């Protein structure tokens, strides 16, 4: 397998000579459509198509075949390295387990009880960074929160390959309930925290020329809740921020995506919907008819973090049992 830092191989001169005269000649609006997708950046530039996005200096796609060894940004430890800022709540703990099983070393904060020992049992070296908490004075709203994890990864392993960052400042309120004070909290916890995280994570990954970042936002960012409107709005803004950051990082081979969930079966979420006794009523509004499990979400998140899916970036992937894509029917509308 070619090294990820190797330039893309262009078509040989022999292949170019065998191309028909029709496909070597520009006609009207462009080259022959039959061969457009097989033309390389070098070939297009030579033919005079060195426009934005197609020039010879743009980043080249890398072929990554599942099962083959991946490039490691880490220079110490002999394994790829993943950062997880919250290994206690939501999908953090099952994600850490999945990384450990896949042969990663870990840099984490707030590990769930027994998680470190479990991951070490799978062969991972686990660095726990103190002084970072999901809810408290040292949460992700501080500009140095994610930076502490990055610094630990650089010191212990010489780099990292993947990062999952959970940001969360929940707060109810419709348009008449929200005010400057609670909107400032929503802004800091759900938008500014993402700015700080990306500013810490992206430079070392871009310098290495590879990496994946997944930021948790919320499925309510695309299917807003009217009585959580401030929260939903800030999550939507974070999605756009992540999309812009992805475009900045893409030429350096780094993928950045947003990942949102709703109706997830973990204590904070269950409580926000009225507690366990209300789960059945809430689930009746979810197309799949149930709450999702953190392990399910972690499984999907791994596909965006394990190094093999390097052609997906700038996306906002929402997982809510079909709720975000829900369509009404005439029958359901008539039923009330």
Short description:
With 336 residues, the chain is α/β, with parallel strands linked by helices.
Description:
- The chain is α/β, with parallel strands linked by helices and 336 residues long.
- It folds into two domains: 63 residues, no CATH class; 245 residues, NAD(P)-binding Rossmann-like Domain (Rossmann fold).
- Helix content is 37%, strand content 10%.
- It is built from 13 helices and seven strands.
- The chain has a seven-stranded parallel beta sheet, sandwiched between helices.
- Strand 2, helix 6 and strand 3 form a beta-alpha-beta unit.
- Helix 5 packs across helix 12 and helix 7 runs parallel beside helix 8.
- The longest helix has 29 residues.
- The chain is globular and about 60 Å long.
Which terms summarize this structure?
alpha/beta, Rossmann fold, 13 helices, disordered N terminus
Q: Which percent range describes the beta-strand content? A: 5-15%
Give the C-alpha Rg: 23 Å
Overall average residue pLDDT: 80
Distance between the termini: 58 Å
Number of strands: 7
Give the C-level CATH assignment of the largest domain.
Answer: Alpha Beta
The ordered string of helix (H) and strand (E) elements is HHHHEHEHEHEHEHEHHHEH
Total helical segments: 13
| Helix content percent band | 25-40%
Instruction: Flag low-confidence runs.
Output: 1-61
Form type: globular
Q: Please, what is the CATH homologous superfamily of the largest domain?
A: NAD(P)-binding Rossmann-like Domain
The SS-based structural class is alpha/beta
- Kindly report the spatial arrangement of strands forming the biggest sheet: 3-2-1-4-5-6-7
Major sheet size, sense and barrel closure:
7 strands, parallel
Number of domains: 2
CATH fold descriptor of the largest domain: Rossmann fold
Identify the CATH architecture of the largest domain: 3-Layer(aba) Sandwich
